[in-house]
Each structure stands twice: as structure tokens, then as C-alpha cells.
Amino acid sequence: MNKVITINLGGSAYQLEEGGYDDLRAYLETAAAKLSGNPDRDEIISDIERAIAEKFRALLASHKTVVETKEVAAVLAQMGPIEAEPGEAAGTSASGAGASSGASGQKTAGEERAAGSGGPPRRLYRIYEGAMISGVCNGIAAYVNIDPTLVRIGFVLLTFFWGMGLLVYVVMAILVPEARSPEEKAAASGFPATAQEFIRRAREGYYEAMKGFPDRKARREWQRRFRQEMRAHADQWRYNWHSYWAEHAPLHPGMGFTLPFLSLLQGVATVLWICAIISLLATGAVFGLALPANVPVWVAALLLLIAYGILVGPLKFARRACYYSLGRPHWAWSLAFLLDAVVWLAVVAALLWLAFHYLPELRDAVHTLPSVAHQAADDIRAWWHGK
Amino acid sequence: MSVNEKFSAIRKGLLEFLVLQIIAAEKVYVADILKQLSVTEFATQEGTLYPLLSRLRREGLLDYEWKESEAGPPRKYYELTAKGREQLRETLEYWGQINGTVKKLGQK
């Protein structure tokens, strides 16, 4: 009769004989010591734990629930000793020149991080624990490291602007993957060990960007003037549209039809735009139209955004002019406004739902989208660092 | 010292290159890589492979994706990045040069 110890490996429980447990613990401790200079130490250890878990699982059956000591030894022999990578080795022998080689190992790790390639990346997931609806806000909060309540308030506020918050929420609830495995959950909020690293890198990136502009004041001034000009243009446009539509506004009886119709058009445009973005990210082509070879994906996405703005702009102004023609701010004004937003949202939601259920390509594209989006973000980051 | 022993350092150095080549062909997880290597002179173990893969990822040569497996915990499936492909291409070219040199040198 042997004592059995239950352990957690890679998210599942396994029962080991006590001798096997001691062997396994010694193996993992040696591994951690050998990798002590490696910036990815925790990740490698959890990789190894998961590999061991998989081998244990293969040994077990319904009538056999305990891993025996000799089986643990066989699995560990199969795994082989942990070989530290050159330049990352720290204290390769337990008794060796621990302090000095440890320090040099730390230094290489530090240098590598300074090169901007260290640390596991934080990724956007939905986090179900403690979620109000589907964990979107929770995930964003973990991603940018703020209180989830703030994010929720942000979404509610955004919803007052033509229902934008609600739409963004629904799209994110569909597109953003849920954090299921412990690793995904860790990645969603960033590894605790690298929180410091995250801040450091952000700060470094900031100074790096500042260095690129020798005259900071001139840059600020330029930015300020640019923004002012753009605002003036936008105001002028808005004013022109308003005064035009207010004068030549469709007659009141027709308004009941005009508003929802305009909303419908805008909804269709929005869905087309979302589909275009998805197909661009998933296939590198917009509705089968391949990009020229030298145009990166993010530039194409930006162009799509601008095209969408141009397409939807007149519709938006026309709709706003419709509200204005109903008279100065007035209860009817806000009612029309609300009705309009509801129609628009309903159209977008219905089209998205239909597309999702009847276009298998779209569903596939949506499934590959998170990894494609992560890849795109990584590319942009690499491009930024390479500049 | 046998030839096998003399080449152990070279094999170790070449392992990275072979791993890149295996991953270039298709998305694989660690057990696939070990299986493909096991029938060659480069047979290795998880204890060597995981630290190697982690370094290659940190160098931006490969990336991974989580996939659920029907039996056991989710697995990491590795694939090459554009940078990894470029490096593999360069290495193959260089390897060709070395091979040429080995064959040519000493011949009259």
C-alpha cells in the first residue's frame, strides 16, 4: 500500500504515488533552477507541466487512476533533462559558481528585453469570471489594467452616441475569444511577473517616439493647428449640410419614411464595412479583390475606414438635418432620434445574424480572426520598432 | 572519440534549423516535432525542445496558437513568422554553400 498525492498539472488533477510525486517535484525544481535566467521561465515550465500531464493521461484508464512511481520515472526520462539555451544558462550546476553566472544570465535576459522582444504578450480575451453579461468589459479592463466598472460606464456612455457602445459590445462579444485555459486567462491580464515589464516597455516606447521629433514644441504646435483646422472644416461642412437640409428638407409627412430608410442604408453600409474588414484580415483581400503587393494590411484597413466615412458621412448629415427640420430641440426630436437609433441597430444586428448563420465562410473567417488580428498587431508593433 | 561524439556540438547547433524546417511545412505541436526528429540523427526530448522553441519565439521567428485537444490539456501549435521564413531561407542558402565547400576543398 502506498500513499497517493493529488496534484494539479496543466489544469487537471492527477494522483501520483508519493515517490513519483517527489521525483516530479525534484524534476520541476531543477528545471526552474536551470531556467532562472530565462525571461520565459514560467511559460516553459508550464509547457513542460502540460507535456507531462499529457503523458500521464495516456497511462491512465477507467480502472487505473493512479500514476505509479516507476511510471513517473519513465515519463521524466522520456522528457529528458532541461537544457538551458546558450546565453540564458544560469547556475547550470546546482553547486556551481551560482552568484556570478546567475548574474550574467540575468544580464543577458535584461539585454534581450531591452531589444524589445521579451515577455509574453498580453492578449485581449473575454473573461467570464465576475462578468455582468459576456465578459467583454472585464476582458478590456484586464487588458488595459483598469477597473471594469470604468469600462462598463464607458460603454454605457458610448451607447448614447447613436447606440455605438451597444454595437461595439455585440461585435466584440462575437469576435473576441473567451479565455478558457489557465494560460489564456494569464495572458488576458498579463503575467504578474511581467506587469513591471509592460510599464517599462510602454515608457520606453514613449521616449523613443519623443526622440524622433527633435523639436517638441514645434511638433505640438503643428499638431494643435492641424486639429484646429480639421475641426473648422468639419464645422463648416456640418453647418452647410444643416442649412441646406433645413431649407430643402423633405416634407413632414414623408419624414416617417425618410428617417428609417436613411438608417437602413447606413446600417447596410456598416455591415458591408465590417464584412470588408473581416475579409481583409482573414484573407488579405477585400471581397476577393487582392491588395497590391506593397500595401500592408493596416494601410488597407485605414483606407477602408476612410471609404466608410465618406460613404456614410452624407447619410449621417442628412439624418441629422431631418432631426433639425423637426424643429428646435423638442420631445419629438429626441423620440425620432431614439427610434432612428433603434432601427439602425436592429438592421445591423439582423444582417450580422443572418450573415453569421448563412455564410459558413464568414463564420470561418470570424474564427480565424482573433489570431489574425493578434498577428496584425504584432506586425504593426514590429514595424514600429523597426522604424 | 567516435564521429558520432565529435559531431554532437554540430548536431546541437543544427537542431534549431531543423525545427524551423519542420514547422515551415505545417502547423505542428511539440509531440509532432519530436516524432519527426526521432527517426533521424537529431532525436531529442521535450527538455531540450521547449527552451529552444521559447527562444525562437522570443526572437520573433515563430509564433503559436492554442488548440483544444480531445484528450488532455490544450496544445500549442507552432508556425513560422515572416521573419522565421526569411531566416530559414538564408540558412538553407548558407548550408548549401558549406556543403559545396566541404565537397570542393582539397580536390584538384
Question: Could you walk me through the main structural features you see in this protein, from its secondary elements to its overall organization?
Answer:
The complex is a heterodimer of chains A (387) and B (108). Chain A has a three-stranded mixed sheet. Chain A is mainly alpha-helical. The longest helix of chain A is centred in the middle third of the chain and has 32 residues, at 216-247. Chain A has 14 helices and five strands. Chain B has 108 residues and is mostly helical.
Tell me briefly what this model is:
The complex is a heterodimer of chains A (387) and B (108). Chain A is mainly alpha-helical and 387 residues long. Chain A is built from 14 helices and 5 strands.
Walk across the major sheet of chain B and give the strand order. Answer: 1-2
Shape category of chain A:
elongated
Strand and helix order of chain B: HHHHEEH
Identify the overall geometry of chain B: globular
Q: Can you summarize the main beta sheet of chain B?
A: 2 strands, antiparallel
Helix-and-strand structural type of chain A: mainly alpha
Per DSSP, what share of the residues of chain B sits in E-state strands of 2 or more residues? Answer: 5-15%
The overall pLDDT average of chain B reads 88
Number of helices of chain A: 14
Please provide the count of β strands of chain A.
5
Terminal CA distance of chain A: 65 Å
* Strands in their spatial order, largest beta sheet of chain A: 1-2-3
Most extensive protein-chain contact, per-chain counts:
A-B, 38 and 29 residues
The count of helical stretches of chain B stands at: 5
